[in-house]
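Regression test attached.
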Amino acid sequence: GAVVSQHPSWVICKSGTSVKIECRSLDFQATTMFWYRQFPKQSLMLMATSNEGSKATYEQGVEKDKFLINHASLTLSTLTVTSAHPEDSSFYICSAETAGEETQYFGPGTRLLVL
Amino acid sequence: QKEVEQDPGPLSVPEGAIVSLNCTYSNSAFQYFMWYRQYSRKGPELLMYTYSSGNKEDGRFTAQVDKSSKYISLFIRDSQPSDSATYLCAMSDSNQFYFGTGTSLTVIP
């Protein structure tokens, strides 16, 4: 149980385009979903926290207009990187938390390369 | 002072060794403690989850929480090359999660 999927697993795009990453909880309802960014050999950096049906809470320094987060249902959250630039190239990981469990289950991550 | 401190390593051990990974923390409100394993280019995988103090064992893995010392440990017995990964500690006070920076472990055959 507690499986989180992400799609796509990797994406290459041109600078200036937008990329959407999906995060799904497959066998549980995720009351809260988290989006992280991770650079090579570095720890997770929390970007934003989202609860189903409400606006995401962004961490300081994360541009909400650039990283659009939608948590439309209890099993799906999406992160859209708008007008992507090479510096947005990174490993993006989502995680999900369910009510009553104080732990996060992570997706496999999405590797984004912006050319 | 960071909420959670974890030695980044790297740590190299021979196959079969006992590995001890540790984190310290400053917030006495933390009640939930987790260890994640992250292989290169993959998302973190939950290994152990402990509530409050005490020990928890799962196969070759043992998690210990000492709330009086604000110290948590993960022990890996009979370490295998497949255990080579980065190990992240995490803890929560029900409001927010805090992660350690991760310890890179290599088990040498």
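Expected vs. actual: identical. Residues 68 and 74 of chain A are 17 Å apart (CA to CA).
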